[in-house]
Amino acid sequence: CPTTCWYQTEKPPTGAGVSGYGMAIIMWSPDGSRAYCGTGSALLNVPASWPLGYLNSVQQDESAFSLSEDNGRTWNQLSLIDTDISLLSDVVVAADSGTIYLASINNLGAGLDSIWRSGGAATGRSWERVLCLPSASDDIILRMSNYGNDEAVFMASRGTADLRQSQDSGQTWKEQLPGMNVTDFSVTTINNTRYLYTLSGSHMRRANASSPAPQWSQQVATTLSAGHTIFAAPNGVVVVGGDSADNRVAISPGGGPFTATAAFPSTGGIHAIVDYRFSDAALIYAAGDAADSD
Fold it and tell me: Which of 82, 85, 101 is nearest to 93 (CA)?
C-alpha cells in the first residue's frame, strides 16, 4: 500500500455479545510484539454519556482481556472472560499429550460457546480461549487425527453443516463445507495423508483434509437407519455405530460399501472403534450409551 492500510482481523477480540455494541482499549507491549485488548459494554455512544457510561455493565457479554501475538490478526482471550460454562461438550488431546482442547457450552447471556486450549509447561493448569462462536445445537464435537503426530484440530456443531479445521493450534479456523449436517466425524492419517470422515444420519462422506479446500466424495449409505458415531482407522477401515433406533454396527473395509452386524446387545446410541493392528482381520469394540447399558 502506498499509504496506511487497514485490514480486517481474522479472529477479533470478543465482547458486545448481548448489547450489540462494545468498547475496546488496545495497548502494545514496549517492543511491539504483543497487543492487549480489554473489551466491555460501556455505553459511550454520545458525549453526554461521559464518564458514567463506563459504569454500564452487561452480564455474559463475552467481554474479556485478549492477547494478539500476530499484529492484531488473531486474538485469544486470557482472563476476565464474561461468559458462562453451562456444560463441557467435548475434549481432545494431541497425540504427544502436549496440547488439550476443550469445548464448553454457554446457555446464558449471549449464548456463545467456546473452545479452549491448554499447552506447554502449564498443560491442564492454564487455559486460553481460541474460539468463541454460536453453536445452534449447543453440542460441539472436537477431533484430532488418531494416528501419528498430526497437530490439526477439527470442530463441528453437531446437527449442522458447521465443520471447521485449524492447522495452527486453534489460531485460525477454515470451513470444511461437508454439504451435510454433521452427526459425528472422525479424522485419521492414511499413508501420510489426513482424511476426514463425516457421518450424517444414515450416510457418510470422505474428504482429503490435507488440502485447504477438501474435495468431498459422494455420500455412501451405511446400511443403518441412522448412525450415532463414526470411527476411521489409519488402515482405511471405517465403523459406524447406530443410534438408539438401530443398535447395530456398520463396517466398511475402505470407506466404500458397508456391511452391518447383528443387533448389539445393549441399548442407546452405539459407540464403536476398531483395533486395526491385524493384517487380515479387524477387532471391533462397541458400547451403548444408555444408562442401563452393560
Answer: 101
